Amino acid sequence: MPIITISRGTFSGGKEIAECVAKKLGYRCISREMLVTAAEKYGVPVDKLTHALADKPGLLERMGLERVHYLAFIREALVNEVKDDNVVYHGYAGHLLLRGVPTVLRVRVIANMEYRIKAAMERNNLSREKAIKFIKERDEERAKWTRFLYHVDWLDPSLYDLVINLDHIRLDTACEAVCMAAASERLQMTPEARKIMDDLVLATQVRARIAAEGKSRDGDIDVDAEDGLVTINGVVHSVEDADEIKRIALTVPGVKDLRSNMKIRTHW
């Protein structure tokens, strides 16, 4: 069975659909729990991990290497949570953090502003004016974050397999539509899909281990894995940094061999 990611604007109904789908399919429903898992494993306060995902680019840019490390921790935690399928994830950027995984059903939920304002007023006990301000600010931050990290517009429908407009259908109908889409043969686990997931698990584990244990400046590297062969691409500041990164990568269980395509930065 597939992994279902649900992207939504603030108070657009995505959380409710995620919970409904998970209940109907007998799936686990996760969001903030994934942040808690990463925080506990790497000893990082949950609020710092939350800010790494949610804050606008100005603050993210100032976080520098710390931001890169937090995102590595979050991605490793998410991949580990969903690796066995049967999960609905309705946190930040699941469809982007899991890019390349063929068993992911990417859902986008939208709703008109009045629906969202009413939900914000009821759940957060806000005035109408404050509810509007809250929704617009959160949406703007999410849009800027997505452009900053992945160079895409989070509203682009091509990023999703299914777009649900709650202006036109009821929540229970939307829930049924997602459950039906999840039954697609394309989304079922195959040996090829399992291999892709296993490779991604190893790659994210290596990247997170480098972030957690290294003393190197590793903000500009990426890690790929295939059948135990780990490839590290990117730019580092020195030969010593490259050696440290390679040393750590080789300590991760499951790494059989290592290919380094790291280049040394020569100009500042």
Keywords:
11 helices, globular, Histidine-containing Protein, Chain: A, Rossmann fold, 268 residues, 2 domains
Characterization of this structure:
By secondary structure, the protein is an alpha/beta fold. The protein is built from 11 helices and 8 strands. It has a 5-stranded parallel β-sheet with strand order 2-3-1-4-5. The protein has a 3-stranded mixed β-sheet with strand order 6-7-8. Helix 11 (239-249) links the parallel strand 7 and strand 8 (257-264). The longest helix has 23 residues, at 128-150. The radius of gyration is 20 Å and the shape is globular.
Please state the overall shape, judged from the principal axes of the Cα atoms.
Answer: globular
Give the CATH level 1 class of the largest domain. Alpha Beta
Please identify, by name, the CATH architecture of the largest domain: 3-Layer(aba) Sandwich
Q: Which regions are unreliable across 5 or more consecutive residues at pLDDT < 50?
A: none
The description of the largest β-sheet is: 5 strands, parallel
Helix content: 40-55%
> CATH superfamily membership of the largest domain, which one?
P-loop containing nucleotide triphosphate hydrolases
* Gap from first CA to last CA: 48 Å
- As for the CATH topology of the largest domain, it is Rossmann fold
Series of H and E elements: EHEHHHHEHEHHEHHEEHE
Counting helices, strands and paired strands, the structural category is: alpha/beta
Radius of gyration: 20 Å
Give the count of structural domains: 2
The number of helices is 11
pLDDT averaged residue by residue: 89
